[in-house]
Amino acid sequence: MQNIPHIPVLYREVIDTFKDIESGIVIDCTMGYGGHSSMILESNPNIKLIAIDQDQTAIDFSTERLAAFGDRVSIKKGRFSSVIQDILREVDASEIKGVLADIGVSSLQLDQKDRGFSYESDNLDMRMDRDASLTAQTVVNEYSKKELETIILEYGELRNYKKIASEIVAKRPFSSAKELSDALKSDMPRGKKIHPATLLMQAIRIEVNDELGELKSLLSSLKNARLPDAKIAIISFHSLEDRIVKQAFASWSKSCICPQEAMRCTCGNDHQLGKILTKKPLMAKDDELKENVRSRSAKMRVFQMDLA
Ligand SMILES: C[S@@+](CC[C@H](N)C(=O)[O-])C[C@H]1O[C@@H](n2cnc3c(N)ncnc32)[C@H](O)[C@@H]1O
Questions:
Q1: Average pLDDT over residues 231-258
Q2: Digit-coded pLDDT (tens) for 137-158
Q3: The CATH fold of domain 11-104+212-306
Q4: How far is CA 189 from the centre of its chain?
Q5: Mean pLDDT score, 174-190
Q6: Counting atoms of ligand 1 from 1, which one is nearest the CA of 81?
Q7: What is the pLDDT of residue 17?
Q8: Which of 72-86, 103-117, 263-277 has the lowest mean pLDDT?
Q9: What average pLDDT score do residues 87-100 get?
Q10: Is 58 in the pocket of ligand 1 (CB under 6 A)?
């Protein structure tokens, strides 16, 4: 048995979401180390699973881990924004009964120092897909001060974003995340629970992997696919991501999409794709928080598409 390097977050909630599906396909857009994928397959023998990841290390690990499920599972490498479109072209929409995305990095990606995700890393990489062209090195050493300010404010939500961007520009080039986080230590907020450079690292990682663009594109493809009967479950770790999911699900649940100021409905009042199953996002309970600190900021929202 392989060592399992990543404890899946909100796994009971994920199992509950998909366990009663009678037949069809569930798509796991962020297979990672196959934790959610294997639990979904184990808890519901009636379904098949298509699992996506852009990281070759995750693909290699999970190909072995999920092999026991035979032809119930098929694994695809690539960004989920584009792979989902291929799947939607190849598979009948009525076959797809569930979609899961557990956005962000895995514990193994964070822990492997040569991947550059941690503030202790000895390089500046941060690509989930090592064949992608944009690296953290380019963002840190080549982006303009203005571009860095935008990223640090929007993706890191750091209040002194201007000062941090100025310091980066003044002190660069940097060759490792460790060098960067050491040089900026005094400019970082002093939180008790997280390392000072964590939010800066998060901001750079979101830019390198276009994480918000990927999420928006996935939601847009799912909306346009008009799946007749599918549960869409998205787990996010960042308030910006959660807001994107919340707003998308709210708009999918509306029948009338006329502007608020319209005097009467002219849209046809038939745009509702289904209903929100989680009025408030699901979050880890105490027992999970104790066994997995990563679950601290995880939020899961679920939408039931219902166009049958
Ligand atoms: C949080 S981990 C998922 C862990 C997984 N649920 C498990 O139980 O092992 C996120 C995974 O999704 C992958 N990933 C993130 N964004 C992606 C994207 N846009 N396209 C494809 N894979 C992505 C990462 O490479 C990483 O392996």
A1: 95
A2: 999 999 999 999 999 999 998 8
A3: Rossmann fold (3.40.50)
A4: 25
A5: 84
A6: 19
A7: 98
A8: 103-117
A9: 97
A10: yes
- CB of 115 shorter than 6 A to ligand 1: no
Q: Tell me, using a 6 A CB cutoff, whether residue 44 lines ligand 1.
A: no
What's the CA-to-centroid distance between 173 and ligand 1, angstroms?
30
Question: For ligand 1, atom 8, which residue shows the shortest CA distance?
Answer: 35
245's tokens: 């999911």
pLDDT band at 267 (very low <50, low <70, confident <90, very high): confident
Tell me how far apart the alpha carbons of residues 124 and 147 are, in angstroms, rounded to a whole number. Answer: 18
- Name the CATH superfamily housing domain 111-208: Putative methyltransferase TM0872, insert domain (1.10.150.170)
Q: Decide which of 187 and 21 is more confident.
A: 21
Residue among 231, 233, 229, 255 nearest 307 (CA): 229
Residue ranges per domain, the chain?
11-104+212-306, 111-208
For residue 30, how far is its CA from the centre of ligand 1 (angstroms)? Answer: 4
Does the beta carbon of 35 sit less than 6 angstroms from any atom of ligand 1? yes
Q: Average pLDDT of 12-25?
A: 97
Mutate to test the pocket of ligand 1, among 30, 73, 112, 293 (most ligand atoms within 8 A of CB): 30
What average pLDDT does range 234-242 have in this prediction? Answer: 94
Distance in Å, CA 31 to ligand 1 centroid: 6
